[in-house]
């Protein structure tokens, strides 16, 4: 049996999801062709879980990569676990399936394995990803998220999406879905920022109590040019014991906690290295020590990558390195996109950099 099958989790609707996924959001400077090539390389390495979204504007390339690897016999469609997300301009119930069908046409696939509500912030429907008025202010929309979730139910019933879930929901928004009268399907997963400096332990406990899988994006820190920035210490106990690099330790940490992890890179060597987290184990002592790194630090504030001058100088080290380049402190609560989503100047960055 392959290491991917051995490292899959059974979702609350009976389907299985590989715990290690390949993230595909990319800054505008990354050519779409690079995304396609990265997905093909990732399939060759062994990845079977791919995470994208309507917002990322790369589903045509990802679909082309998947179909090429199916055509050459590398994989079958049923081997691939593909995640997409409905964007905020499609949260009206009658538009949810429309968004999914657009993604499927771009992918040239007949279904997605997981469909998520990307953000719990309804935006004015239309072709613009970030609709704005004449003053440059975002145009929001009024939608009952419970009605949106019922539309997600219908996507599952239709077979266009095998499983459904949420990312970036705060506690109140999650509870509205879970406490909805006549709830047909509960979310199978909750996708949030999670890494050793923000380990989301309380949220993880809640998700486990509800049979919901927690999935980590930004598992390696920020989405800036570097996955890790140099530290100034030789403290490398976690990496030396496991004979692994800091990125591998950060990913393995999530898997051993029962958290799914999205590893993202467009570098062939790092794509291969990140997949090798399935080949080793961290000791209980390592896990306890990594837990102690938590500082409730976010690289994405409300889903938006933080670009501040605040230094990482005071952070503890992971293998002599600190994850990410720029940080900000915030309470250890689930993400909500409300605050920065109201700031139009940051939204173009969100389009290219947010999860």
Mean of pLDDT:
83
Q: Can you tell me the residue ranges where pLDDT is under 50 for at least 5 consecutive residues? A: 224-235, 302-315, 324-355
Element-level helix/strand string: HEEEHEHEHEHEHEHEEHHEHHEEEEEHH
Relative strand content: 15-25%
Strand order in the sheet with the most strands: 3-4-5-6-7-8-9-11
Note the gap between the termini. 31 Å
Class from helix and strand fractions: alpha/beta
* Major beta sheet summary: 8 strands, parallel, barrel
Estimate the helix proportion, in percent. Answer: 25-40%
**Count of strand segments:** 16
Bulk shape: globular
Helical segment tally? 13
Rg calculated over all Cα atoms? 19 Å
GO molecular function: oxidoreductase activity
Protein name: NADP-dependent oxidoreductase domain-containing protein
Keywords: NADP, Oxidoreductase
InterPro entries: AKR, Aldo/ket_reductase_CS, NAD(P)_OxRdtase_dom_sf, NADP_OxRdtase_dom
């Amino acid at each position: 049996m392959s290491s991917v099958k051995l490292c899959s989790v059974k979702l609350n609707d009976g389907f299985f999801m590989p715990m290690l996924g390949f993230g595909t959001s990319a800054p505008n400077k990354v050519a779409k062709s690079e995304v396609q090539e990265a997905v093909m390389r990732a399939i060759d390495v062994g990845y079977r879980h791919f995470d994208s979204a309507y917002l990322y504007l790369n589903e045509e390339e990802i679909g082309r990569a998947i179909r090429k690897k199916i055509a050459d016999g590398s994989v079958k469609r049923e081997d691939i676990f593909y995640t997409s997300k409905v964007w905020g301009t499609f949260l009206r119930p009658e538009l949810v399936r429309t968004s999914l069908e657009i993604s499927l046409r771009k992918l040239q696939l007949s279904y997605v394995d997981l469909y998520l509500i990307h953000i719990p912030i309804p935006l004015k429907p239309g072709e613009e990803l970030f609709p704005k008025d004449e003053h440059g202010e975002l145009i929001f929309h009024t939608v009952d998220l419970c009605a949106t979730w019922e539309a997600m139910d219908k996507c599952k019933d239709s077979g266009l999406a095998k499983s459904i879930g949420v990312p970036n929901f705060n506690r109140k928004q999650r509870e509205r879905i879970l406490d909805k009268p006549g709830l047909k399907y509960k979310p199978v997963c909750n996708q949030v920022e999670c890494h050793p400096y923000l380990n989301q332990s309380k949220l993880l406990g809640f998700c486990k109590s509800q049979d919901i899988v927690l999935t980590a994006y930004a598992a390696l820190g920020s989405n800036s040019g570097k996955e890790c920035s140099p530290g100034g210490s030789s403290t490398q106990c976690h990496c030396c014991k496991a004979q692994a690099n800091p990125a591998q330790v950060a990913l393995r940490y999530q898997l051993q906690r029962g958290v799914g992890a999205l590893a993202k890179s467009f570098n062939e060597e790092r794509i291969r290295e990140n997949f090798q987290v399935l080949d080793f184990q961290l000791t209980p002592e390592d896990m306890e020590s990594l837990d102690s790194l938590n500082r409730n630090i976010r690289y994405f504030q409300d889903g938006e990558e933080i670009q501040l001058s605040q230094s990482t100088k005071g952070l503890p080290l992971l293998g002599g390195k600190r994850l990410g380049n720029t940080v900000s402190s915030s309470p250890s609560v689930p993400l909500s996109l409300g605050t920065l989503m109201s700031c139009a100047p940051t939204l173009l960055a969100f389009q290219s950099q947010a999860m």
